[in-house]
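Q&A log
Question type: sequence-to-structure
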Amino acid sequence: MSSLKYFTAIVLLISWFLSIQAEKSSKSCEFQTIFNFGDSNSDTGSMSAAFYPAIYPFGETFFHEAVGRASDGRLIIDFITKHLGLPFLSAYINSIGTTYRHGANFAAGSSTIMRQNKTIFEGGTPFTVDIQIVQFSNFKSRTGKFFTQENGSSYRKHFPKPEDFSKAIYTFDIGQNDIADVISKVGKEDSHVLISNIVEYFSTQIQSLHFYGARTFWIHNTGPIGCLPVAMPIHNAQNNQTQVAGYLDQNGCVNYQNDLAKEFNKKLKDKVVKLREQFLDTSFIYVDMFSAKYELISNANKSGFVDPSKICCGYHEDGYHVYCGNKKTINGKEIVPGSCDDPSKYISWDGVHYTEAANHWIANRILDGSFSDPPLPISQSCQITH
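Response status: OK
Response body:
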């Protein structure tokens, strides 16, 4: 073969290979099922069903009633399911009006990766991520019986098929409450060790899901906890620390709290890379929620929002905190805070959680893969890249 013909053949072969790869990478995964694990950032009704019913004005914007979401409307997980053409995810433990044909949501408010020595009234939760995965295991085994038992045919339309579990996308949004716990222990325990332990345990739980058949993971890192309005000095009694240079950043966020979140995120990303190397049959997508949320906070006014330190619902003044939907007597006066006139202008709903408008803004940034590693849109996240 002449050099020219040889060169032409090589070029054609490379072009063919690249076209095959391009076709493969652009192919939608067509997810029919989604399983979510997390805390209040993606809880669609677990805590409301388990302990105390949701109260108005939560849910006022979209649902026009309280539906167990820590927002005035939809959460990021709701926009994820919408983007994938799936219905809202029912909370696993919510027995009223639920459907699980396209998956289930195991997320619960206050949840953590590590178990905490706190009661529910102290901000603790029984639904740590390992418990959520036990719930998933029970869900998978119990629903699978409907497809093997002769008398289960009437129930099958309500649950995923056994083969759907390996084709599903498994989403995670958890870690914020663990970082809050680390913050509370600063100066008492080694935060670097605590964070390493959290990430290591998180990895163990992800591997448990792989054992149960999960093959596509969409894992959010934790957001800028130091930018939550309740963390900002403007909503707390002033102290000497706020006057120290470097305590706050240009957006009024508490630097050391964000630094702990960044350390967690770096270690989590490193762990995700190692999981990719360990499980070659699985797609692990790491999503930089910190950067997406911080971008919104940094550009609040340009994006049509008010100052990111402002809170739509709740009373947070002079060190007193009356959270949205609650009431409290302060200095002899009963405080019953309502919501703001236009939640769509606010980033923060209640000082801790985001408004529907902010959740929508963030979802639009992450779903196309702009903040993902590897940079795949969620609809193509089943593609394995090693």
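Response note: The longest helix spans residues 3-26.
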